[in-house]
Design a protein that fits this description.
The complex is a heterodimer of chains A (256) and B (301). By secondary structure, chain A is mainly α. Chain A has eleven helices and no strands. Chain B is α/β, with parallel strands linked by helices. In chain B, helix 2 packs across helix 3 and helix 3 crosses helix 4. Chain B is elongated. Classes of the chains: A mainly alpha (256), B alpha/beta (301).
Chain lengths: 256, 301
Amino acid sequence: MKQFLVFTKKEFLELFRTGKATVLLIVFSIFGILNPALAKLTPWMLNLMSETLSDQGVTIGEIAVNALTAWTQYFKNLFMEYLLVLALFSGIFAAEYQSGTLVNILTKGLPRWKAVMSKWLSVFASWSVCYWLTFGITAGYSAYFWDNAAVSHLGFGAFCAYLLGVWLLSLELTFASRFQSGMYALICTGAVYAAVFALGFLPACSAWLPARLNDAFSLLTGDLLPSDFIRSLLITTVLSIANVFLSVAGFQRKQL
Amino acid sequence: MDVLELSHVSKRFGSQQVLADLSLHVPEHTIYGFIGENGAGKTTTMKLILGLLARDGGEIRVCGEPVRYGQTRTNRSIGYLPDVPEFYGYLTPAEYLALCGGIAGVPACVIRERSDELLSLVGLSSAVNRRIGGFSRGMKQRLGIAQALIHRPKLLICDEPTSALDPAGRKEIIDILNRIKQETTVLFSTHILPDIERVCDEIGLLHGGVMALEGRLEEIRQLHAQSGFSIEFLEEEDAALFQAAFPGAERDAATRLVYPKGTQEDMLQAMKLLGGLNLCPVKMERTEPSLESLFLEAANA
């Protein structure tokens, strides 16, 4: 346990001292502020443009903005959030493989699975903190300006989107533990996601795939119900846990 | 007792056979010089000992325990200094040693004391609070030795620790290795032969994937001794005159004659002849085979 704690401490020190934590906290805070801000500013911006638009024959009526507008923006920004964390952590193994820094540590007797688990912990802690920070900021502002009661199943919807991020990161770490390059890990993760997304168009399997979690916004509008996501949530959880084992197995056989 | 034993170890990368049938034994408290030209397989051998690479055949034992690829308990007894040690640049030397000590299972109270002791041994006490990212190559090499010794290993493996250093840096590393000889056994790979001569008790010469030459340095010298002698003159004409009168010499300089196969009797005869010819040499000495000549002899065999 001591070995795990010592190496995990190093992972977190790395996050802070290399500036990754600062970048993540700033960007995810901006995402959180941007969602309600854009919703709040939409009527004002359209009002500013209304004269120009009316000259072109477009008439703008009364714009109704509520919490759902902010949450629409929140779910639209998720893709960027996934991409940012995936890009930032794609080199988590590659950087160590290329520089050889893990050699000293492993030859001191650190079991390989502990090294992988420490990296998992730092990545998922980062994702969890950042994701729920954005959620918290958006929820706080939305509650202040409007009323979050206007959207249904908000917490559940947000959890679905969070779990999709967990699965994507688990997929990336599985590839990252095997490849010498972070770029390969990122590309392979994108390819698997694209394949799963494409499979999601098949009605027979759409409810079972992680890609279903992309539709979490429909929970807020009431178009879909939590029961429509249960199978996908279970499968995504199982796949994410399987990825933990795969990444350990991949790293276990890695020649350094 | 042998701290390290390799028996009939083989390793292949694709079509290239790097190690064919390598066997070596390193007794306790010796500094073992592992010699070989670039690409001979020294680093591969070390990585096999550390379980970082999978071997194709043979057996490796550290302190009597077999080495397993991937996850090997034998690494508890080993300290490893890679050829170009890389560290987390955002840590300070003390933090890095605390990380290594913690992983090696050294109690926290001992780590601090041991870190101070090692940083002082390698001359990094003044840089204790600086981040490693700003260290020179020599400083990193010295920190590499400190991290390798943090858990008082029975075997220290150094992969070409002096190759990338200037003469001052090389001397520092050699001096450190000499100082730690009492507490640990050292396997030291290099292709810089003077370093081996300065520090090693035993040597093994890796060539063509097998051990071409192995044993105590002095014994090897005696076994391969072609005890010749050399005579150095002040004037070139004197050298030419003597060479004509006493054939069998090689001129390795205008005024220097070397008799590589000259025996003691030949040397006495040469002395008499010098007197007879009324020649006074600047220097006359028996020559011992250099490590370089042994290296070339074994490599070309």
